[in-house]
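Shipment paperwork, digital attachment
Item: protein structure file
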Amino acid sequence: MTDEMMTIREMCDAYEVTPRTLRFYESKELLFPVRKGQKRLFTRRDRARLKLILRGKRFGFSLEDIRQLLDLYHIGDQQRTQMVRTLAVARERLEEMRRQHQELETAIEELSQQISTGEETLAKAGASQPKA
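Attachment content:
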C-alpha cells in the first residue's frame, strides 16, 4: 500500500492488533476506514486515532471516554477543549490507579503475612510430629 493508505493486514502488523479489534473499533465509530469493495483502507488519520485509542486503553480509559476525546479534535479551537478534557480524564484515571495501587500493596502485604503464618504453623507441626 501507499504511505497514505494501509490495508487491514498492514494495520494489524504495524500496531500488533487483530482484524477483529480493528473491526470492533470501526463499529464503535472510533475508526473510519475507506471501503473499496470488500477492502478496508486506513488513512493517516485512522492510524493516528488508533495510536491514541491503544494508548488510552493502556491507561485504562473507557472506549466511550476515548471516543469523546477524539471527537473533540475538530471543534476548531486548536484542540484546546480536547486537551483540557483529556487532562481532566487523565487526572481522574491517575487517581483511580493510585487508589488501586494502594489497595494492591495492602493485599500483597496481607497475603505475605498469611503465607508466613502458614509456613510457621507447618514448621511447628512438623517439629512436633514423631518420626516414623
